[in-house]
Amino acid sequence: MSAMQPLGSLAPGQSSGRTKPQLAPAQKAAIIVRFLLKEGADVPLDRLSEASQSTLTAAMGDMRYIDRETLANVLAEFAREIEAMGLVFPSGLAEALQTLEGRISPVTAARLRKEAGVRQIGDPWERIRALEPDKLLPLLKQESTEVAAVLLSKLPVPKAAELLGRLPGPDARKISYAVSLTGHVTPEAVDRIGLSLAAQFEYEAPRAFDDDPVERLGAILNIASADTREELLSGLAEDDAEFSERLQKAIFTFVHIPARVGPVDVPKITREVDPAQLRTALAFALSGTDEGLKASAEYILGNISKRMAETMREDISESGRVKPKDGEAAMNAVVAGISALQTAGELTLVVADDGEEED
Q1: pLDDT band at residue 13 using 50, 70 and 90 as cut-offs
Q2: CB 163 within 8 A of CB 155
Q3: At 185, which CATH number?
Q4: Residue 164 contacts residue 175 (beta carbons within 8 Å)
Q5: Residue 4, in any domain of the structure
Q6: Averaged over 43-50, what is the pLDDT?
Q7: Averaged over 98-111, what is the pLDDT?
């Protein structure tokens, strides 16, 4: 067929003095794709296999032009096939998992993704670039120098510079030299590396708890009895000193009020906590021998209105002795009230510096 010869096909039952060559499936696909692109449609050809993309490109490159009749016939055949489709399934396991997201268990979905080695969605490097440096640093340390060099090259410059500065000198120099050798790395290799790295984060097993263990245990110990709290902290300090230290910083009890609650926020406590519970807590704290509890009670009384403080002191003096069980329950109610204010965003607890110790 000459370069200028129209490539077409006849409709069924039609005759002509010359026979037009029949179109191969690849040629029909090329016609449809060319028509869609001409009309401005976004055709996701990158989702085809590499072999299909090559065949389509070759077919499109061999063709010159077709007549209107052939175009109409190919489009009509394509439309009939589309109309005849009753149901279209996802293309591949990746899309199937995306379709079933939220309908199968997270554990099953994570296992299938890991076994199949598919990306959950989109470019794996987008997922990697969004990670914090603290998560990326272990990757640089555990992966080979060549992989680390590719990873560093794909990150935003500020983040790459930060990570390089956090590596030991010899490791940083090796990776830096390896970056100079990445000029001939193929896009396919970079994609495979990105997929492998992203899989380590994308397919993490789902966590049963949203909160950090320190936060969960700290919340429990906040309202536990003082004896239970001290005994547990003492034992943890022997078993895991680092965890114990973090836990002590997370604990907030009645004795921590002066250090953690700002003076302007103290009146909010009197509105949140039941007045009888607050009086009981203050009475118990002032009547005991614990100077920390006394300081907290005086701090509260010293940062509310003078009239309210005087009324409370009178009520406390007439209340008599408070049982330890009732006193601790009342102090826990005050702590719970402060936590409720914090959760509601009405109060912000002061965070002590790492070098400071809370009373």
Answers
A1: very low
A2: yes
A3: 1.10.220.30
A4: yes
A5: no
A6: 80
A7: 76
80 & 116 share domain: no
Give the CA distances from residue 145 to residues 142, 176, 180, in Å, rounded to whole numbers and listed in that order.
Answer: 9, 9, 12
Residue 291 to residue 282: CA distance in whole angstroms? 13
pTM summary value: 0.44
* Residue 182 structural domain: 96-202
CA dist 294 → 178, 191, 262 (Å): 63, 64, 17
φ and ψ at 267, to 5 degrees?
A: -60, -25
Residue-level pLDDT at 128: 87
151 and 177 both lie in a single domain: yes
Whether 304 is covered by a domain: the verdict is: yes
Closest C-alpha to 204, from 101, 120, 95, 98: 120
Q: Is the pLDDT of residue 277 over 50?
A: yes
How far apart CA 133 and CA 127 sit, in angstroms, is 13
pLDDT at 187: 87
118 lies in the same domain as 175: yes
Residue 216 lies in a domain: no
pLDDT band at residue 241 using 50, 70 and 90 as cut-offs: confident
The proportion of the chain whose per-residue pLDDT surpasses 90, expressed as a percent, equals 25
CA distance 174 to 151: 14
Mutual orientation of helices 92-99 and 106-116 as an angle, nearest 10°? 170
167-199 as b/e, with b when 16 or more CB fall inside 10 Å?
beeeebeebeebbeeeeeeeeeebeebbbebbb
- The arithmetic mean of pLDDT across residues 133-144, rounded, is 87
Q: Total domain count for the chain?
A: 3
Domain assignment present for residue 179? The answer is: yes
Return the sign of the alpha-carbon dihedral for residues 238, 241, 245, 251.
Answer: negative
